[in-house]
Amino acid sequence: MTRWLFLPCSTRPDGNTLALARAAAAHLPAGAQAHWFDLATPPLPRFADLRARGGHVAPKGRLAELAAATLAADELVIVSPVYWYGLAGPGHEMLDHWSGWLEVPGMEFAGRMRGKRLWLVTVRADPAQGSQAPLEDAMRRSARWMGLRFG
Ligand SMILES: Cc1cc2nc3c(=O)[nH]c(=O)nc-3n(C[C@H](O)[C@H](O)[C@H](O)COP(=O)(O)O)c2cc1C
Questions:
Q1: Residue-wise pLDDT tens digits, 100-151
Q2: Which of 7, 24, 39, 124 has its CA 20 to 30 A from that of 92?
Q3: What's the CATH class of domain 8-150?
Q4: Which one of 10, 22, 124 would you pick to mutate in the ligand 1 pocket, going by the greatest count of ligand atoms within 8 A of its CB?
Q5: How far is the CA of 17 from the centre of ligand 1 (A)?
Q6: 39-56 pLDDT tens trace
Q7: Cα gap 44→109, rounded to integer Å
Q8: How far is the CA of 32 from the centre of ligand 1 (A)?
Q9: What is the chain's mean pLDDT, rounded?
Q10: Please, are residues 54 and 32 in contact by the beta-carbon 8 Å criterion?
């Protein structure tokens, strides 16, 4: 059984990215199990870089739920519109929290993430060819940096 975790980031309900991701989820291979975790509603707690202020501690509450769902997944699908040539805020907030989790003693976030695959489902309004490229590139580089494959 392959666990797919879809991570919607749009700040409006039932938008285009969600429609596209739902269509993709309807065509997952046999044996796939789809899970969803909305990053926008309710919003994730704001990230703070605590490395120089006592260090990061294990996630709690909604962040703990997100961390557990993330670590349980084989395939992570960021479902984000292009916002200002990049990732929508809620998706960015999640990646910022990944940075914190990398620092949590005993969490082994880096090692447990390695080998998973990161996907991007995105939409945009700008018809200009390649205007999604900065977002794609950021996700590809982020995946590589984390030891993830990119889809
Ligand atoms: C804050 C904001 C920034 C946006 N920036 C871009 C952009 O840089 N390039 C683009 O093509 N579309 C941009 N858009 C348009 C969205 O990508 C488009 O409306 C998309 O359908 C929104 O996704 P959703 O329908 O899932 O909410 C932006 C929209 C918003 C609200």
A1: 999 999 999 999 999 999 999 999 999 999 999 999 999 999 999 999 999 8
A2: 24
A3: alpha beta
A4: 124
A5: 10
A6: 999 999 999 999 999 999
A7: 19
A8: 30
A9: 97
A10: no
Q: How remote is the CA of residue 21 from the centroid of ligand 1, in Å?
A: 16
CA atoms within 13 A on the CB side of 30: 0
Please give the Cα distance from 20 to 123 (Å, whole number): 8
Take residue 67 and report the two structure tokens written for it: 């961390």
Read off the tokens for 147: 């030891």
Q: Which two tokens stand for residue 82?
A: 């292009």
Strand pairing class (86-87; 75-83): antiparallel
Q: Which residues line ligand 1 (CB under 6 A)?
A: 10, 12, 15-18, 81-85, 123-126, 131
Candidate from 82, 84, 92 with most ligand 1 atoms within 8 A of CB, to mutate: 82
